[in-house]
Design brief:
The complex is a heterodimer. By secondary structure, chain A is mainly alpha-helical. Chain A contains 15 helices and 1 strand; from the N terminus they run H-H-H-H-H-H-H-H-H-H-H-H-H-H-E-H. Chain A starts with a helix and ends with a helix. Chain B is mainly alpha-helical. In chain B, 78% of the residues lie in helices and 1% in strands. Chain B contains 8 helices and 1 strand. In chain B, helix 5 runs parallel beside helix 8 and helix 7 runs antiparallel to helix 8. Classes of the chains: A mainly alpha, B mainly alpha. Chains A and B meet through helix 2, helix 7, helix 11, helix 12 and helix 14 of A and helix 1, strand 1, helix 6 and helix 7 of B.
C-alpha cells in the first residue's frame, strides 16, 4: 500500500468520524422538540432528519465546503509542498474531532464549525505566517459567528410577535391559526426550494437564474400550501374538559343574566330604602354574573390555546425538517472541506484551485452524518426532547424557522456558522417576545467564552498533528 | 446537545401557582374559623388555628424554593421584581390568615349580639376578594401561553377590576361595622374589644392585600 493510499484512508476515516459526530450531537437540536412533544416517533424523526440532512449536504453543501477547503488559507501556498497541506488538513480534522470530544465530556458549548475553522486557520498561519490566511474572508467568517445568532434572534422575535398578535389577539385563535398555516408552509417550501435551485449544483442542472428560481420555488410553495390547507382543516377542537372545580351549567349562567336584567328594572322603579337594598342586590348579582361568565370562558381559552398548539405541531415538524436541511448544508463542510482538499491533492497531485468539491465526497459526508444520527443521535434526541418541554410548538416553530433561514442563507454565502449557537439566538429572540418562562443567560456567556478558546485550541491541535504526520510520512 | 438543554431554566410560574393554592387553603380555613366561633366551639377553633399555621408553613417552604431558584442571570417572561413582589404579597395573605387564626384563639370570645351578621358579610366580602385574586393567579399559565397579551390579558384585566371593586365594597362594610363596634364598647370587656378591633383590621387587610396582588398582576400585562 502506497503512502498516498494510507493517507487517503486516514483522511477519509477522520472525515467520516467528524461527520459521524456531527450527526450524533448536532442533529438532535433540530428534531429534539418534535420528538419530545410526541409529534414524531424517534424512528420517524431519524428518517426525516436523515433524508433532509443528506439533501442539504448534497444540494447546498458545496459553498461552505469550498470556503473551508480553500477560502480560509490559500492552497497556492503549498505549491511544491502539496503533501504539507495533506498533513495539515488531516491534522485539522483530528484536532477538531478530539477537541469536540473533550468539550462534550466537560459539557462546554463548543461548536463543530468553530473547531474546524480554528484548526485550519491556525495550521495555515503557523505554517505560512500571517499572509497565509485570507484575512478578509476570515473576518467575514468571524463576523458571521456573531451576526448569525443576532439575525436569527431578530427573525424569531419578529415572527413570534407577529404570530402572537395575529392569533392571541383575535376572538378566534384556532381559526386564525388554521388560516395562517398555509402561508407559513408556502414560505418555508419557497425558501427551501430557492436555496436548492438558485445557483445550485451545476452538474445536476440545478443552476437556475433568478426568475426561473423564483418561479419554481413559488410553484413548489403553492403546492405545499394547498396540501397543508387540507391537512389543517381536519383538525377539530377536542371536547371541553373540566378545568375548574365548580362548573356552572348553561342554565345557571342564563338564569343569572335574566335575573340581573329583571332586578335592574326593579331598581329603577323602587323608591327609598327598598331602592337602596335592591341596588345592593343588583351589584352583587352583577358580580355573580361576571363570575359565572368567567367560569365558562376560562375553559374556552385554555382549550383554544391547546388547539392552536396542536396545529403548530405540524408546522414545527416542518421547521425542524428545514433546520435539518440547513444544518446538513452548513455543517457537512466541517467534515468534507478538509477531506476534499486532501483528496484533490492525492488524486491529481495538485492543489487545484478551480475544481469544485466532488459530489461523491459530499455524499460521503452526508452518509456519515446519517450513520452518526442513527447510531447515537437518536438517543440525544430523546434526552433533549424530554427536557425542552418549554419550547411549545408555536415557540419552537418561530425559533427553528428563524434558525433554518439564517443557516441556509449563510450556507449559500459560503459562511460556516454554528447551527447550535444560531438556534440559541432564535430561542432568545422568542424569549424576548415573552414566549418562554425562564431562560438562563449564563449560556450566552459560556458561548462567547467558547468562541475565544476554541480557535487557539483547534490551531494548537492542528499544528501538533501536522508535525506528527509529517514526521511519520514525510 | 447540552447547550440547548441548559438554556432553559426552571419555570417559576408553576411553583407560584402552587404556592397560591396553599395560600387559598389558609384563607378558606379562616371562614371555617368564623363558623366555629359562631358555634362557640373553642376546641375546634384551636384546632383550626393549628391547621392554618401548618398550611402557612408549607406555603413558606414553597416560597423559599421559588426564591432559591431565581438567580439574577435568569431572563424571565415577566419582570423578576414583579414576580418576587407577587410572591411576597401571596405570602402576606397567608401570614394574615395565620394571624387571624391565632388572634381568635387568644381568649374565649363571646358572641357579639347585633353585629354578628354584619361581621359575617364583611368576612365573606374579604374572602371573596382573596378568592378572586386566587382565580387571577390560576390564569397565569394561560397568560404565559398568550405571552401576557391579547384577549387573555383583557379577560384578566376584567378580573382585576372586579377585585378592586370587591375591596371597595369591603371598605364600606368595614366602616359601618367599625362604627357599630366602637359604639358597643361598654358591652364588651377591654380585651375583647381590642381583640375585635385587631381582627377587623386583619380581615380588612386580606381584602387590601388581594387588591394589591391583583394590581401587581396588572403590571405584567400587555394591554393595548
Amino acid at each position: 500500500m502506497g503512502v498516498e493510499t494510507i493517507l487517503l484512508l486516514i483522511a477519509m476515516a477522520c472525515g467520516f468520524y467528524m461527520a459521524w459526530s456531527i450527526g450524533a450531537n448536532d442533529v438532535a437540536n433540530a428534531m429534539g422538540t418534535s420528538v419530545g412533544s410526541g409529534a414524531l416517533t424517534v424512528k420517524r424523526a431519524v428518517i426525516l432528519a436523515a433524508v433532509l440532512e443528506f439533501a442539504g449536504a448534497f444540494f447546498v453543501g458545496t459553498h461552505v465546503s469550498e470556503t473551508i477547503r480553500k477560502g480560509i488559507i490559500s492552497p497556492n501556498l503549498f505549491i511544491g509542498n502539496e503533501f504539507d497541506l495533506v498533513y495539515g488538513m488531516i491534522g485539522a480534522l483530528l484536532a477538531a474531532a478530539i477537541w469536540l470530544q473533550v468539550a462534550s465530556y466537560f459539557g462546554w458549548p463548543v461548536s463543530t464549525t468553530h473547531s474546524i475553522v480554528g484548526a485550519v486557520l491556525g495550521f495555515g498561519v503557523l505554517y505560512g505566517g500571517m499572509h497565509a490566511a485570507d484575512w478578509e474572508k476570515v473576518s467575514f467568517i468571524v463576523a458571521s459567528w456573531v451576526v448569525s445568532p443576532l439575525l436569527c434572534g431578530t427573525i424569531s422575535f419578529t415572527l413570534f410577535t407577529f404570530l402572537r398578535h395575529l392569533i392571541y389577539d383575535s376572538d378566534d385563535p384556532v381559526g386564525k391559526a388554521k388560516r395562517v398555516t398555509p402561508y407559513l408552509v408556502f414560505v418555508v417550501f419557497m425558501v427551501l426550494t430557492l436555496t436548492m435551485v438558485f445557483k445550485g449544483l451545476k452538474n445536476l442542472k440545478l443552476d437556475l437564474d433568478v426568475t426561473d428560481s423564483l418561479l419554481v420555488a413559488a410553484a413548489v410553495g403553492l403546492v405545499a400550501a394547498f396540501v397543508s390547507r387540507f391537512l389543517v382543516a381536519r383538525i377539530k377542537a377536542p371536547p371541553m374538559e373540566d378545568r375548574i372545580v365548580v362548573r356552572q351549567p348553561t342554565a345557571v349562567s342564563k338564569g343569572v343574566s335574566k335575573a340581573l336584567t329583571n332586578l335592574q328594572k326593579v331598581a329603577e322603579q323602587a323608591r327609598g330604602e327598598v331602592q337602596e337594598q335592591v341596588l345592593t342586590m343588583v351589584r352583587d348579582l352583577e358580580a355573580l354574573d361576571k363570575d359565572v361568565v368567567a367560569g365558562t370562558t376560562v375553559e374556552q381559552t385554555s382549550q383554544e390555546h391547546r388547539t392552536v398548539e396542536r396545529i403548530f405541531v405540524y408546522l414545527q415538524i416542518l421547521s425542524a425538517g428545514f433546520v435539518a436541511f440547513a444544518h446538513g448544508a452548513n455543517d457537512v463542510a466541517n467534515a468534507v472541506g478538509p477531506l476534499a482538499a486532501v483528496i484533490t491533492i492525492l488524486n491529481t497531485g495538485q492543489v487545484a484551485m478551480k475544481s469544485a468539491v466532488p459530489l461523491w465526497v459530499l455524499g460521503l459526508g452526508g452518509v456519515g452524518i446519517i450513520i452518526g444520527l442513527s447510531t447515537w443521535g437518536w438517543r440525544v434526541m430523546l434526552t433533549i426532547g424530554k427536557k425542552i418541554t418549554e419550547l411549545t410548538p408555536t415557540r419552537g416553530f418561530s425559533a427553528e424557522f428563524a434558525a433554518a433561514t439564517t443557516i441556509v442563507v449563510a450556507s449559500k454565502l459560503g459562511l460556516p456558522i454554528s447551527t447550535t449557537h444560531t438556534l440559541v439566538g432564535g430561542v432568545l429572540g422568542v424569549g424576548l417576545a415573552r414566549g418562554i418562562s425562564a431562560l438562563n443567560l449564563r449560556v450566552v456567556t459560556n458561548i462567547v467564552i467558547s468562541w475565544i478558546i476554541t480557535i487557539p485550541a483547534g490551531a494548537v491541535g492542528a499544528i501538533a498533528f501536522y508535525y506528527m504526520l509529517k514526521a511519520i510520512f514525510g | 446537545m447540552r447547550v440547548l438543554d441548559s438554556l432553559f431554566a426552571k419555570s417559576p410560574f408553576a411553583p407560584l401557582q402552587s404556592h397560591m393554592e396553599k395560600v387559598a387553603a389558609c384563607v378558606q380555613k379562616v371562614e371555617e374559623m368564623f363558623q366555629a366561633y359562631v358555634n362557640q366551639n373553642f376546641d375546634e377553633m384551636d384546632r383550626i388555628a393549628d391547621e392554618i399555621s401548618a398550611l402557612e408553613h408549607a406555603a413558606d417552604l414553597t416560597k423559599n424554593d421559588i426564591r432559591n431558584n431565581l438567580p439574577k442571570g435568569l431572563f424571565l417572561a415577566v419582570n423578576r421584581g414583579d414576580l418576587l413582589e407577587i410572591l411576597g404579597l401571596q405570602d402576606d395573605i397567608a401570614d394574615m390568615a395565620e394571624d387571624i387564626g391565632g388572634m381568635m384563639t387568644l381568649k374565649r370570645l363571646e358572641p357579639l349580639e347585633g353585629i354578628e351578621a354584619d361581621l359575617k358579610i364583611f368576612l365573606d366580602k374579604n374572602i371573596e376578594a382573596a378568592t378572586q385574586a386566587h382565580n387571577i393567579i390560576r390564569q397565569m399559565d394561560e397568560l404565559l401561553s398568550a405571552s401576557f397579551g391579547g384577549k387573555e390579558a383583557e379577560k384578566v384585566k376584567e378580573m382585576i377590576e372586579h377585585v378592586a371593586y370587591l375591596e371597595h365594597e369591603a371598605d364600606i362594610l368595614q366602616r359601618n361595622l367599625s362604627k357599630k363596634l366602637y359604639n358597643m364598647d361598654d358591652k364588651l370587656s377591654y380585651s375583647s374589644f381590642a381583640l375585635w378591633v385587631n381582627v377587623l383590621q386583619s380581615v380588612a387587610s386580606l381584602g387590601n392585600l388581594a387588591e394589591k396582588l391583583a394590581n401587581r398582576v396588572r403590571m405584567l400585562l400587555e394591554l393595548k
